[in-house]
Amino acid sequence: MEITIEQALQQGVAAHKEDKLQEAERIYRAILKSYPKDPDANHNLGLIAVSMNQIAQALPLFKMALDVNSNIEQFWMSYIDALVKTNSVKEAKLAIKKAKKQGFDAKKLETLLPQSKVLEARIPYNNCPLCESNNISNSAVGDCSKQLLYHPMIPSIMQWMDCGDCLHQFINGHFTDEALEVIFSKQPENQVVGYQIEEQRYISARIIEKVIPFKSYGTWLDVGFGNGSLLFTADEYGFEPIGVDLRKDGVAALQNLGIQAHCDPVQNLEFEKSISVVSMMDVLEHIPYPKEVLISLYSKMDEDGCLLISMPNSESWLWKLWSKENRNPYFNSIEHYHNFSKTRLVSLLNECGFNIKQYGISQRYRCGMEIVAQRN
Ligand SMILES: [Zn+2]
How far is the CA of 344 from the centre of ligand 1 (A)? Predict the structure, then answer.
């Protein structure tokens, strides 16, 4: 089957986002075979080269992308950043001048120059964010600079910490509001309401069917609903859907469809009805202090309410082998604050009043686990 260049590019970007760099590189190269000047394929291939520290190879790719389309700020940023990394500061300054002439914000581009200040991006955790122990020490180090949400104003090094008491692993600090704004200025397309609605319906149905043996009716609150698929499908199964998300666009889109949706941290919300099912799919690892959110959710739920949580499991063999081979993608995951093990998640849920009903693996993201728990 013939696929269009746009489709090929989408596949490449999807693989790229999932950190499947070899596959992404193969697709970008295939595009360039037919269209050697395609700006996106050139640019993204350049990003992969940078991530492998092959800056010299990235430069002509970024240059080509700009020659064909100089209206994309990201192309300028990548090019200037690569020039700085090869110590070509003069050329970088020249490029900034050119970009400025085209109407781009020179101040923002100048942040890429070596003397520019990097954001004070994180508020450090002085204690373990789960058990408050101060017995914490440095652990693995990651590098988020090749992530799609990365911005050069954010430090690229990610220092993970281990708690000596509860054995939880967490990043050394959560982001300031200013840093969050920089990171979330980009919206991944899989977070747009209605994204792949047909394919996602099957994945969502499998998730809902895991809950139904324990709770089969009532309100379904999805925290961080993203593309909305779980709520659409829960509605179909007879639940009353309620969405919470921090992306304003998504909340507005859901409200336009007549679905109750809120744009606030869930712990700040009061709901009219008691909540029967709460789902947090790949959400808890992004929350600075997960325990206070779980305790607050407990107070809003039916006595036999169900909680569904998915996230990567740092106790799986896949995770351990990735780490051993120095290719654990989650150490570089810019928007994650926590690396939960199954054991630590289960004990946290117990501490907050939930009983584990079922363990399963998640198909949503790599190395995912999916836990169904119920209120005591
Ligand atoms: Zn701890």
Answer: 9
Distance (Å) from CA 241 to ligand 1 centroid: 34
- Across the range 67-78, mean pLDDT stands at 94
8 Å CB contact between 168 and 130: yes
pLDDT value, residue 118: 60
Ordered DSSP codes for 270-327: --SS-EEEEEEET-GGGSS-HHHHHHHHHHTEEEEEEEEEEEE-TTSHHHHHHHHTT-
Alpha carbon distance 322, 112 (integer Å): 32
Looking at this protein, which amino acid is placed at residue 350? Answer: N
- pLDDT tier at 373 (50, 70, 90 boundaries)? very high
| Residue listed under structure tokens 């070596």 | 114
CATH of the domain spanning 5-110, picked from 3.40.50.1820, 3.40.50.2000, 1.25.40.10, 3.40.50.300: 1.25.40.10
Distance 158 CA to ligand 1 centre (A): 19
Give distance in angstroms: CA of 163 to centre of ligand 1.
5
CATH number of 189-375: 3.40.50.150
Decide if pLDDT at 163 tops 90: yes
On the question of pLDDT at 75 being above 60, the answer is yes
Please give the mean pLDDT across all residues of the chain: 92
Distance from Cα 139 to the centre of ligand 1, integer Å: 14
pTM for the whole thing? 0.70
Distance of CA 336 to the CA centre of its chain: 7
How much is the pLDDT for 190?
84
Distance (Å, whole) CA 117 – CA 352:
41
Within 10 angstroms of residue 151's Cβ, the number of other Cβ atoms is: 20
Instruction: Please give the distance, rounded to the nearest whole angstrom, from the Cα atom of residue 136 to the centre of ligand 1.
Output: 8
pLDDT on residue 108? 84
